[in-house]
Automatic annotation (TrEMBL):
Protein name: DUF1289 domain-containing protein
One Pfam family linked to the record: DUF1289
Species in which this protein is naturally found: Novosphingobium anseongense
Superkingdom of the organism of origin: Bacteria
InterPro entries in UniProt: DUF1289
Amino acid sequence: MHAGQPRSPCTGVCRIDQATGWCAGCLRTLDEIADWAMLAVPEKRALLRRLADRQREAQ
């Protein structure tokens, strides 16, 4: 990983919830999981912020 690169939010719990379409571990959609490696740093950070919002919504 390069300096400044956000870590992948993957937790190793890879199971898609049918109701939300989100992974039970990281809360990403299948498209977001597939796109992660191709995203620029600002896009990764924006996605991480959305995931934090999803986490709050899921609680």
